[in-house]
Structures are given as structure tokens and as C-alpha cells.
Design a protein that fits this description.
Layout (H helix, E strand, L loop, with lengths): L12 H13 L1 H13 L4 H4 L8 E5 L2 E4 L4 E4 L14 H14 L10 H11 L5 E5 L2 H16 L3 E5 L12 E3 L10 E3 L7 H4 L1 E4 L5 H8 L4 E6 L11 H17 L2 E5 L11 H6 L5 E4 L10 E5 L1 H4 L23 H16 L1 H25 L5 E5 L2 E5 L17 H12 L2 E2 L6 E2 L6 H20 L4
Parallel strand pairs: 3-15, 5-8, 5-9, 9-10, 10-11
Antiparallel strand pairs: 1-2, 2-3, 4-12, 6-7, 11-12, 13-14, 14-16
Helix pairs in contact: 1-14, 4-12, 5-12, 8-9, 12-13, 13-15, 14-15
The chain binds pyridoxal-5'-phosphate.
Pyridoxal-5'-phosphate (PLP) binds next to helix 6.
């Protein structure tokens, strides 16, 4: 054993070297991780499975530093939240001003909520009204409740390969034995009531068979929810756009609400998110990540008549729903989020071409390399969202992904970390506006080198 690694197995020389290197240079991270394991059940941190458990102490622009002082080019970017990079001056000064000049309080309205709501209404096609909450998970939970209350129908439909948050209705897997054009929803993990599966429909992604399922269930189906680019297999192309528009029409024809989950894509694809990019007008949309400027945030926006269910419970309306939370719309989150959204709005002509252009460049250059070297690896990207997959052949939907991570993938991510590029344990990565062309060029060079190291060990 060395630094938590078992070196007795069948490792190639590069595999052995990378483990020794990480063990030596991340000693403090390792010690602190052992201590955290004694104190905490790690929750998301454990399930995110970093290639090696580095603890991050400091962030700036496109970089992170761990507790041992190692610097990384960061493509985790707060799971997409830090679209301007870390400690962007506009966001930092707004937070400092709020702390020093006005302080913070909870559970009461504050004046920053007004311009914040105005940014949403200005940005997105569907948003006539908005409510704030604290995470993307909360936003989809509330939106689902609102859709059920408004429609009076119990079921919701999500797509195979999607993720909509950690609550019972946000995450499901398809039964692997179920047919590709009629996947069956299965809850993930223990502790979820079996009845949840009775009210969830799973739809096949990028398949017109989904429209028939929607029509057949129209009487019971409150809402269809979709990520306009699935983070499990990001695509951004005309065919996806066509599918989204046909889906929107199928929902409208069936009297089923159509909701886009813009927790990642909102204010990332374009200022108006996927709705602007594809010219879509959903009934409801959910947000998180970017809208908090690095503070925990979520929001639901949509048609005024649907959104009315959020304030009518107190008025005795039978369609009124329960919502609310101590920290929802709090002044620190509003200050940080508003600063980030205002910057994105003002500089959108610079920001979005950079995000989408550098994401595309990264994908194109790596794909060119893996093709020319005949390596079974490829990058999928939807603008600035990207992921490296260790698989040859087309990946159209989550069905085409490897159910198990191949050894080449494990080795590659160890090398990547050792060479100073950090991606999250989910492997789902994003470019930020703080990544310069040089940072992206450096990262592409490192990716190619790491692929070579894996190949030298005979794994690629
Ligand atoms: C599309 C989508 N919806 C919802 C969520 C949940 O957001 P949060 O992690 O803020 O709860 C995520 C998180 O990654 C997401 O990607």
C-alpha cells in the first residue's frame, strides 16, 4: 500500500508512478480525508468519488489550490455555478459590500429580490413570475408540486439519462431489462417509497416513441421535464433542437405541462439559457447554480397562471401549494447572484462566444487527437459543458454509455489530477469565462499527454 493505493496489483509503470506521485504530493489531503471519514458520513462528497481525495483550500479565477499547495486548472467550477470563474471581482465586491454595509437577515423580503426577478423575466421566454429557493433540487421539487397542483394530475415524466436533483422524483434509472423505446423508471438507492415508481414515467431520450407515451398517459400526466442538454451525455445540435420543439408540441397537444430544467443550462448556453438557444417556450423552468453567483440558490419561473399556485394557499385556494424556507432569496445570495447575472447580461457578447467557443475547441482538438491516434476515447460537449468518455462509436443517449468505468478511464483521471487538471468525480465538466485561451490550450496538451500515458500502459 502507498498513500491509500494498493500497488500490489497488475499496474503498468505509469500507473504505479502516478499513484506514488499523488501519494507524495497530496499527503495533507490524505491525512485530513482520513479524519473526515472518522467524523462525517460523506454524503455527496463520498459519492462523487474523486480519483484521489484532494481537499481544496483556495480558489481564484480558473484555478484551485489544495491543502498541500498544488494548483489545478479547474473544470469542476462549482458543478457549473462559477460561470465567471472563482472570486470574480464583480461578484466578490457585491458580496463584500452586502456583508460590510448592510449585513444579512433571513425569512423576510429584501430589495435585491426585485432586480433579481427582473433579470429572469428579461432573460427567459417563459418566465412571467419567479420564486426563489436554495438549490436546484429544491427548484425541481417545487416545480413538480406546482405542476401537480395546477393540473390536478399525479404523474410526472422524466427522460432516461436525466438528473433533476436529489429528491425522490429527481433521480431515477431505467430498468436495464426494459426496452430502449419504453424504459421503465426505477428509483435510485434505498429509502424511497415504492409508490414513487407508480407516479414516475421514464421517457426514451431523442426518440419519437416518447411522444406516444405522453399521449397515452395524458389523462394522468401533469408535466414532462427535460434537461435541454443532458449532463450525462451533453449534446447541443439541430437534431436535439428539433426534438425539443416536437416534444413541446406533443405536450401542448396532450394538455401536459412542459418544463425545462435549466439548473445547468440557464445563463450558460446563452443569457436566456437553452430557451434562448433553441427558441423554446416551456410552461415552467427551474434554475440553480449560476443564479447564486456561488451562493446556494434555486428558482422556479414560468407562466403567471401556473406560478399563481405559489401564493394562493394562504388565500384558501385549493390549488395553492406549500413552499418557503428560512434562507430562500436571502440577501447574500441575491447580492452575489445579481452581480453575476448583471455581468453576464452586460458582457453577454463577450462571455457566450468565449464559453461556447472554448468548449467546442476543447472537444474538437481532443477528438481530432483520439481519432488520429485511434484511441477509444471521445469528448461530448454542449457548448461549455463537456465530458471525456472512454468508448468508441457514437454516444447518442445514456443507453450508449458504459455501465462500468473501464480501467483506462480510472487511470486517465489519476494522471489528469497528477498533471494539474481537476474535473469532478462525476466527470461532468464546464469551461468558465475565467479560462483563458492559454488555459484551455494548456489543458488540451495535458489531456493528450495523459491519454498517451494510459496507452503506454497498454490500456487504450
Ligand atoms: C439538471 C439539474 N437539475 C437539478 C440539479 C440539482 O441541483 P443542486 O445540486 O443545486 O441541488 C442538478 C445538479 O447538478 C442538475 O444538473
Amino acid at each position: 500500500m502507498s498513500g491509500g493505493f494498493d500497488l500490489s496489483g497488475d499496474l503498468g509503470p505509469n500507473g504505479r508512478h502516478v499513484r506514488e506521485s499523488l501519494s507524495a504530493k497530496c499527503a495533507r489531503s490524505r491525512d485530513l480525508t482520513s479524519r473526515t471519514k472518522e467524523l462525517m458520513n460523506m454524503g455527496s462528497a463520498a459519492s462523487l468519488e474523486m480519483p484521489y481525495p484532494v481537499l481544496i483550500e483556495r480558489s481564484d479565477g480558473p484555478y484551485l489550490w489544495d491543502v498541500d499547495g498544488n494548483r489545478y486548472i479547474d473544470f469542476q467550477v462549482g458543478f457549473g455555478a462559477m460561470v465567471l470563474g472563482h472570486r470574480h471581482p464583480a461578484v466578490q465586491s457585491a458580496v463584500e459590500e452586502q456583508i460590510h454595509e448592510r449585513g444579512w437577515h433571513f425569512g423576510l423580503h429584501n430589495p435585491s429580490q426585485v432586480p433579481m426577478a427582473e433579470q429572469f423575466i428579461k432573460a427567459d421566454n417563459c418566465v412571467e413570475r419567479v420564486i426563489f429557493c436554495n438549490t436546484g433540487t429544491e427548484s425541481t421539487m417545487y416545480a413538480i408540486r406546482a405542476a401537480r397542483a395546477f393540473s390536478g394530475k399525479p404523474k410526472i415524466a422524466v427522460f432516461e439519462g436525466s438528473y433533476h436533483g436529489a429528491h425522490d422524483y429527481g433521480i431515477g434509472r431505467s430498468d436495464p431489462a426494459s426496452p430502449a423505446d419504453a424504459p421503465i423508471f426505477r428509483s435510485v438507492g434505498a429509502g424511497v417509497l415504492p409508490a414513487v415508481e407508480d407516479y414516475q414515467i421514464m421517457l426514451p431520450y431523442r426518440s419519437r416513441a416518447a411522444f406516444d407515451i405522453i399521449r397515452d398517459n395524458a389523462d394522468d400526466l401533469a408535466v414532462v421535464i427535460i434537461e435541454c442538454a443532458q449532463s450525462s451525455n451533453p449534446h447541443m445540435n439541430d437534431e436535439v433542437g428539433e426534438f425539443l420543439h416536437e416534444l413541446r408540441a406533443a405536450c401542448a397537444d396532450s394538455g401536459v405541462l412542459f418544463m425545462t430544467d435549466e439548473v445547468i443550462t440557464g445563463f450558460r448556453f446563452a443569457y436566456g439559457g437553452a430557451q434562448e438557444h433553441y427558441g423554446l417556450k416551456p410552461d415552467l423552468a427551474t434554475y440553480g447554480k449560476i443564479i447564486g453567483g456561488g451562493m446556494p440558490a434555486g428558482a422556479v419561473g414560468g407562466r403567471a397562471d401556473i406560478m399563481a399556485v405559489f401564493n394562493s394557499m394562504a388565500l384558501g385556494d385549493p390549488k395553492g401549494i406549500m413552499s418557503g424556507g428560512t434562507f430562500s432569496g436571502n440577501p447574500l445570495t441575491m447580492a452575489a447572484g445579481l452581480a453575476q447575472l448583471r455581468y453576464l447580461d452586460e458582457y453577454r457578447d463577450a462571455v457566450y462566444p468565449h464559453l461556447n467557443g472554448q468548449g467546442q475547441r476543447l472537444a474538437d482538438e481532443i477528438n481530432q487527437y483520439t481519432r488520429s491516434e485511434n484511441m477509444a476515447a471521445q469528448v461530448l460537449n454542449a457548448g461549455s459543458m463537456f465530458q471525456i468518455y472512454f468508448k468508441a462509436g457514437e454516444i447518442r443517449t445514456a443507453r450508449d454509455l458504459n455501465p462500468m468505468r473501464p480501467p483506462a478511464e480510472t487511470e486517465f483521471y489519476l494522471h489528469l489530477l497528477d498533471n494539474g487538471v481537476l474535473v469532478p468525480g462525476t466527470r461532468r465538466s464546464c469551461v468558465s469565462f475565467a479560462h483563458s485561451r492559454d488555459d484551455i490550450g494548456e489543458a488540451i496538451g495535458i489531456v493528450k499527454r495523459c491519454l498517451d500515458l494510459v496507452r503506454e500502459d497498454g490500456l487504450l
